[in-house]
UniProtKB/TrEMBL annotation:
Keywords in alphabetical order: Aminoacyl-tRNA synthetase, ATP-binding, Ligase, Nucleotide-binding, Protein biosynthesis
Superkingdom as given in the UniProt entry: Bacteria
Database matches in PANTHER family: TRYPTOPHAN--TRNA LIGASE, MITOCHONDRIAL
GO molecular function, one term: tryptophan-tRNA ligase activity
UniProt key word Nucleotide-binding: yes
Protein name: Tryptophan--tRNA ligase
């Protein structure tokens, strides 16, 4: 089976875009791929952070993955901090990467532009991401536009290492699962729905109650054309609502005579999709979720240890 690694940042506020763009494709691929769902808690330390929030968000993401249908018997759910081979391989890959390669990363440039102190880990974390992928021999990595440069670096490092020291790593491929929808911000539909958007008005969090969902969708930005049609260029707001409806119901939307009618239908579809997830989330015991993370770690470690061992032999640290 194809090995696939899907990463999530433990930043809280997981939203409808994360569900329809990443979590649901992961659930759908469970029978045809050997998947790992990785929570990148180490990456959360690259910027100013609150330790309690990182801990809580890691558990929240793991719980939401389970609530959304990730089956831990098929998909290993791990936090990258709990599998020490990630950081061990990180250093070995740093010895393969160049400073200039890391400094060129768009995310590094953007996030370090604020003027405050810049953590060294912000520069090196794309190399950690390469280690996250290569340590498990992942063949496929679903990536959005914002991560494609980092995936390219992982490929470059794997190819370079293999060429210098002998065949060691599987070279991963960035993919966009067919079922992955791209959901836009409801208050600013030319931007992606995002956890970091300044205002929550454009976002539906996965644990939002129906009243909040209703309010957010009723205020969603549309336009003055007065016609419901899929035309992302000229009617991004209406097109986004249609895309959400299609993704939530898995059906082609019908005809609508008004924006109000469309919004009501979108609200019902989103509420119907999120209600059971919220209910399962409330039932999941934190102790059980921690056990699932521990099991995930146990399951992936033998292969990760073998990769690190192979890497150490190739690079000259072990016989
Ligand atoms: P993040 O934790 O923000 O890195 O996102 C986790 C996953 O959700 C990634 O695979 C993203 O591509 C996906 N994702 C984030 N925002 C959206 C969105 N608005 N629409 C679709 N997918 C998204």
């Amino acid at each position: 089976m194809i090995k696939r690694l899907t990463g999530f940042q433990p930043t809280g506020n997981l939203h409808l875009g994360n569900l329809l763009g990443a979590m649901r494709p992961l659930v759908e691929a469970q029978s045809t791929t050997d998947s790992i769902a990785m929570i990148a808690d180490l990456h959360a330390l690259t910027m100013e952070h609150d330790p309690a929030a990182v801990r809580a968000n890691t558990l929240e993401v793991a719980t939401l993955l389970l609530a959304a249908g990730v089956d831990p018997r098929r998909t290993a759910i791990i936090a990258n901090s709990q599998v020490p081979e990630h950081t061990e391989l990180h250093y070995l890959l740093e010895c393969t990467a160049a400073f200039g390669e890391a400094a060129r990363m768009i995310q590094f440039k953007e996030k370090s532009a604020g003027g405050g102190p810049v953590r060294l880990s912000l520069l090196t974390y794309p190399v950690l991401m390469a280690a996250d992928i290569l340590v498990h021999g992942a063949e496929q990595v679903p990536v959005g536009d914002d991560q494609s440069q980092h995936l390219e670096l992982a490929r470059t490092l794997a190819l370079r290492f293999n060429a210098r020291y002998g065949e060691t790593f599987t070279v991963p491929e960035g993919i966009r699962p067919e079922s992955a929808a791209r959901i836009m911000d409801l208050s600013d539909p030319v931007r992606k729905m995002s956890k970091s958007a300044p205002s929550p008005a454009g976002r539906i969090a996965l644990l939002d109650p129906p009243e909040t969902i209703r309010k957010v969708i009723s205020r969603a930005v549309t336009d003055t054309a007065g016609v419901v049609r899929h035309d992302p260029e000229n009617q991004p707001g209406v097109s986004n609502l249609l895309a959400i409806l299609a993704a939530c119901t898995d059906e082609k939307p019908g005809e609508f005579t008004s924006y109000g009618a469309l919004k009501r239908e979108v609200t019902d579809a989103v509420v119907a999709l999120l209600d059971p997830i919220r209910a399962r989330y409330a039932e999941l015991d934190p102790g059980y979720v921690r056990e699932i993370l521990a099991e995930g770690r146990t399951r992936v470690r033998p292969a990760a240890l073998a990769t690190v061992r192979r890497t150490k032999v190739a690079i000259g640290l072990l016989d």
